[in-house]
Design brief:
Blueprint lengths: L6 E2 H6 L1 H9 L4 H24 L7 H13 L10 E2 L2
Antiparallel strand pairs: 1-2
């Protein structure tokens, strides 16, 4: 069983409480889902661009990137799982 605290996009757009809030705020669920998925895609593109330069240099800049990457393992998510945090 997963130990994550965040909702996936699918879970978020299907959650009854979130659906009630979207209805009250006149938010189109399909538009909301599309916006979330486009943000995930954009984030993935940024990560790809960053990773292509990851091993190109040495020194303090590389050390800082490695340090940031190592910190992320404490909150690692399942591969290709988009999550929404509030």
């Amino acid at each position: 069983m997963s130990q994550r605290n965040d909702l996936t996009i699918d879970e978020a757009v299907q959650d009854p409480m979130i659906r009630m809030l979207m209805k009250a705020d006149r938010v189109d669920p399909r538009a909301f889902e599309a916006m979330l998925r486009s943000l995930v895609a954009a984030q993935g593109e940024r990560r790809k661009a960053q990773s292509s330069h990851f091993l190109e240099d040495s020194g303090s800049a590389r050390r800082q990137r490695l340090s940031r990457a190592a910190k992320g393992f404490g909150n690692a998510k399942a591969f290709s799982e988009a999550c929404v945090s509030w």
